[in-house]
């Protein structure tokens, strides 16, 4: 019997959070082995588990997978969340890359100096509301379906919901000008596997706070 995927990362969101989301949305149970000290990270590096000496790392199907995008591609394809053909996969890739760019900006915000945080938050809100969210709003409007690609839940939808919720943590009314995205958020949040992830006590990680920033800087020697 094949065991559950095992995720190796810190106890925070970071680059692993989207992988947690993807597995949870697919209904896949997984285990986590947390990196809590610099010694934990060095142990993984020294025993040859990390192909490029970096995490995230996911043990799945006999592989020790690294590189966030490669891990996401594999999980999405394995659990039928990656479209029916190359064209659908290309659209999913484009949408995922867009939300990854936005989430990257949000992810690094807590690590920035206090005197630049307000300026960077304003930039994130501006980019979200003028560059990213309008694209997804238009896509839903143009094809009239519930989901972004192929009228079927895909990695693109899961990633977009995660991005929306991350943005709302910083600006709760950020979707005020996007009625179709508001409806999309409601629909996708109620998919049973995703609804379970959004409940207290799930493996979803909390927003990054100053205490966790300090832990990460210590582990990765930042």
UniProtKB/TrEMBL annotation:
EC number: 2.5.1.18
InterPro entries: Glutathione-S-Trfase_C-like, Glutathione-S-Trfase_C_sf, Glutathione_S-Trfase, Glutathione_S-Trfase_N, GST_alpha, GST_C, GST_superfamily, Thioredoxin-like_sf
Catalytic reactions on record: RX + glutathione = an S-substituted glutathione + a halide anion + H(+)
Domain GST C-terminal, residue spans: 85-208
Keywords linked to the UniProt accession: Transferase
Signal peptide: none
PANTHER family to which the protein is assigned, alphabetical: GLUTATHIONE S-TRANSFERASE (PTHR11571), GLUTATHIONE S-TRANSFERASE A1 (PTHR11571:SF107)
Domain of life: Eukaryota
Enzyme class label: transferase
Domain GST N-terminal stretches: 3-83
Gene3D superfamilies listed in its UniProt record: 1.20.1050.10, Glutaredoxin (3.40.30.10)
Protein name as it appears in the record: Glutathione S-transferase
Membership in a protein family: Belongs to the GST superfamily. Alpha family.
Molecular function as annotated in GO: glutathione transferase activity
GO biological process: glutathione metabolic process; xenobiotic metabolic process
């Amino acid at each position: 019997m094949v065991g559950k995927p095992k995720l190796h990362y810190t106890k925070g969101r970071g680059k692993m959070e989207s992988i947690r989301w993807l597995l949870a949305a697919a209904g896949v149970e997984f285990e986590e082995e947390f990196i809590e000290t610099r010694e934990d990270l060095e142990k993984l590096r020294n025993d040859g588990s990390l192909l490029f000496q970096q995490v995230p790392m996911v043990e799945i199907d006999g592989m020790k997978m690294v590189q966030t995008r490669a891990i996401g591609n594999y999980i999405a394809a394995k659990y039928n969340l990656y479209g029916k053909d190359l064209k659908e996969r290309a659209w999913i890739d484009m949408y995922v890359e867009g939300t990854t760019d936005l989430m990257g900006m949000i992810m690094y915000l807590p690590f920035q100096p206090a005197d630049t945080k307000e300026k960077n938050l304003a930039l994130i809100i501006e980019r979200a509301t003028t560059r990213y969210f309008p694209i997804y709003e238009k896509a839903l409007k143009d094809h009239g379906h519930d989901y972004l690609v192929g009228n079927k839940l895909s990695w693109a939808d899961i990633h977009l919901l995660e991005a929306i919720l991350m943005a709302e943590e910083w600006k709760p009314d950020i979707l005020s000008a996007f009625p179709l995205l508001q409806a999309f958020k409601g629909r996708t949040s109620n998919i049973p596997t995703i609804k379970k992830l959004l409940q207290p006590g799930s493996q979803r990680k909390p927003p990054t706070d100053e205490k966790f920033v300090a832990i990460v800087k210590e582990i990765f020697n930042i």
